[in-house]
Amino acid sequence: MGQEAKCTLTFRRAKVEGTALLETDALIFRGGDVRLSVPYRDIVSVTAADGALRVEFGGDVAVFALGAVATRWADKIQNPPTRLDKLGIKPGTAVILLDVKDDAFAGEIAARGARVSTRLSGEADVIFLAADRRDRLEKLAPIQRHLKRDGAIWVIRPKGVDAITERDVMQAGKAAGLVDVKVARFSDTHTAEKFVIPVRRR
Q1: Are residue 64 and residue 143 in the same domain, yes or no?
Q2: CATH number of the domain that residue 46 is part of
Q3: Which one of 25, 45, 80 terminates a domain?
């Protein structure tokens, strides 16, 4: 989600001025000597009233004086975007899965009402390229022939391995004439980087 707001945090009898961050998987606060990160999965309850966001988690309570955005933040914490929301998959989206061996993911896409193919044919709105090592990235240039001009390529790679790194992916994308625009959490073990065709080439 990537939103932030200046606020006052009341936590364990302390009141601290700082910045709250509404991230994809956690509510984060930084201010003074306080560094607080609350994963959404650990939140027991969240409510908003009079500009204050009250969050209960792990036997603790944190109150963020956020003002007008408190209600909106509470709604987003209670209804976080799904993986497909973050990846831009909507009903009717034409998707190509290239080297993606994840039946559950393919099932999610189909259930969303998108059209899924595992072959490079026609033009897709979104292409997912699974890459577990650097040489897989050589496909970034040729697969663009099957991407709509305003479409996106997501490179899915394992986290924390030497065989392929974020730098490798970014360099390969640039070499293929693409622009990196977003990074998203794909799973506990994998991350995804999004690339698009530069406007001048569309």
Answers
A1: no
A2: 2.30.29.30
A3: 80
Same domain, 25 and 106: no
Give the separation between CA 110 and CA 104, rounded to whole angstroms. 10
Task: State the residue range of the domain holding 156.
Answer: 84-201
Same domain, 69 and 164: no
C-alpha closest to that of 112 among 136, 87, 76, 149: 87
Q: Give the model's pLDDT for residue 9.
A: 97
What pLDDT does residue 202 have? 82
Say yes or no to pLDDT of 2 above 70.
Answer: no
**Mean pLDDT, residues 4-14 taken together:** 94
User: Residue 1 pLDDT > 60, yes or no?
Assistant: no
140-174 pLDDT tens trace = 999 999 999 999 999 999 999 999 999 999 999 99
Q: What is the DSSP letter of 138?
A: G
Q: How high does pLDDT run on average in the chain? A: 94
Segments of the chain assigned E as strands:
3-11, 14-22, 26-31, 34-39, 43-49, 52-57, 60-65, 94-98, 115-117, 124-130, 147-158, 179-185, 190-196
Residues with Cβ within 8 Å of residue 55, at least 6 apart in sequence: 27, 38, 43, 45, 46, 61, 62, 63, 64, 77
Q: How many domains does the chain have?
A: 2
